[in-house]
Amino acid sequence: MTTCYINGNYRDILESKVSITDRGFQFSDGIYEVIAVYENRFVDIDLHLNRLIKSLNKLKIKINLKVNQIENISKKIKKLNNLNNGIIYIQITRGDQHPRDHKFQKGLKPNIIIYSIPKDFKKINSKAKRGVTTSLYPDIRWLRSDIKSISLLGNSMAANYAKEKKNHEAILYDKKNYITEGNSSSIWIIKNNKCITHPLNYRILKGCTRHKLISIVKRKKLKFVEKKFSIKALLSADEVFMTSATNFVMPIIKVDKHKISDGKPGQITLHLRDEFINQI
Ligand code: PDD
To answer: CA–CA separation, 200 vs 50, rounded Å?
Structure first.
């Protein structure tokens, strides 16, 4: 049995229900977070909870739990589900509203759920040794990707396109052929020893793994720049990788039919992955 926290109670996840009047169900009016637990340790929980609060504030969703209470519930869920390796999933929607109306009423009671999913990080570690393949896909999402909203249809369509092509992730590009991010990751390239990733703005999520890796890159005295890069720059990069809570630093060896360099994981990328995991 998986135990889920739902609005103050701990229940079997399969028995846990919210109303069909939930604004998350009807309008995708809610936000979420994914926090990794790696070898029994939370990975960057402070960064994730900080971003959770920012997403709530951007949508003016008010909750009556403090950050440390959400942290304690997450720890309790980890314990109740004996989670050593996996993720903690947190979702907060604005709450139930009837009758349906785009305009939200004041004083709604948010629906808060927290549960865990086990994950085999050994498998992900061995995947990282080989590197993963990707598909390019147009970024058809809304223009507030900085909010970690549960409105994920664009991401999901991109991910399923990549899956159909037997690829691990879709890399999204905007109308001017600049790369924004992955369907659920931040995308990086390395060219002439310089690490490059999209600048922070409304088109991408402020990745916690991205944030952590920037400090590692700087500490390692590697060159780092936040700037937009084109599909052409992606394909001619020396190394390409993605970062996310579930993949950490994952080498990308192919984009559609195009091999990156010699088609093997880049050496700097693998070094950054090791450094990231050592820091956990
Ligand atoms: N996704 N960009 C998007 C669109 C994402 O969905 C994610 C993470 C990231 C990387 O953020 P972070 O490093 O904080 O995980 C970037 C999570 C893993 C998910 O939706 O499952």
So the answer is: 16
**69/39 Cα distance (integer angstroms):** 23
Catalytic positions are 148
| pLDDT tens profile 91-103 | 999 999 999 999 9
Question: 3-119 — its CATH code?
Answer: 3.30.470.10
- Asked if the peptide bond before residue 118 counts as cis, ω within 30 degrees of 0, the response is no
- Evaluate: CB of 180 within 6 angstroms of ligand 1: no
- Over residues 58-83, mean pLDDT: 98
Residue whose CA is closest, atom 5 of ligand 1? 184
- For the chain, the structural domain boundaries read 3-119, 124-279
Residue 148 Cα to ligand 1 middle (Å):
8
CATH for the stretch 124-279: 3.20.10.10
Per-residue pLDDT tens for 184-206? 999 999 999 999 999 999 999 99
Task: Indicate which residue's Cα is closest to atom 20 of ligand 1.
Answer: 184
Rounded distance, CA 89 to CA 86, Å?
10
d(CA 181, CA 188): 9
